[in-house]
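User: Sequence recovery, please. Input:
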């Protein structure tokens, strides 16, 4: 497949690109600084401005089979990037005739009643931005979406390849594990219309996804 990734220089994107290209997919990585996108066979880096209008974004992603939104402003541009940037990319996907959309979100972003969790207290504004992006994807589009909601992201050289789904509290997630889940759901139709609330755990990723 030809896959477009918004946020192509992020911590998750580096591992996601590796996973996707290892599986034979072609990746177009959009980023503010495309020169910083990891250099690998099968990867094309392009400039991406999430402040651009929907028509411009649709032209940029045209011809892709699937779109990932893994961009993030790290709290610096929550409304324009994390919320409205995601929404515009969804709208652009529909304009461009792309059905498959995979969104990296945040644990319990769609459940404000759980934001009192001490592990989420410092990212309330981020979760508010993600709440509106997630809700738009669910309720205002006809996309074949999957929303991946991990807890806190932890740097690691490699992942365990084992996770838990349907977690009841915010827990740590190694970045390689999150990227592996994002890559694994791409062609799994049983993940369409699903919110995957995840953490590191004891179940192999493929096995966990097959239970959905």
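Assistant: Recovered sequence (212 residues):
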């Amino acid at each position: 497949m030809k896959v477009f990734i918004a946020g192509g220089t992020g911590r998750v994107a580096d591992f996601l690109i590796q996973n996707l290209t290892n599986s034979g997919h072609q990746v177009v990585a959009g980023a503010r600084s495309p020169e910083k996108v990891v250099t690998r066979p099968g990867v094309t880096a392009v400039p991406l401005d999430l402040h651009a209008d929907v028509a411009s974004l649709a032209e940029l992603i045209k011809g892709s089979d699937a779109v990932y939104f893994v961009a993030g402003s790290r709290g610096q541009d929550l409304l324009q990037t994390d919320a409205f940037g995601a929404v515009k990319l969804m709208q652009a996907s529909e304009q461009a005739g792309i059905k498959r959309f995979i969104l990296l979100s945040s644990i319990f972003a769609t459940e404000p009643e759980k934001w009192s969790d001490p592990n989420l207290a410092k990212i309330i504004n981020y979760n508010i931005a993600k709440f509106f992006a997630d809700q738009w994807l669910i309720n205002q589009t006809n996309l074949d979406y999957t929303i991946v909601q991990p807890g806190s992201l932890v740097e690691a050289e490699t992942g365990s390849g084992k996770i838990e789904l349907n977690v009841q509290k915010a827990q740590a997630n190694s970045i390689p594990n999150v990227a592996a889940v994002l890559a694994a759901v791409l062609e799994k139709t049983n993940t369409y219309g699903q919110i995957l609330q995840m953490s590191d755990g004891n179940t192999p990723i493929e096995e966990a996804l097959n239970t959905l």
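The chain has one domain: 2-210.
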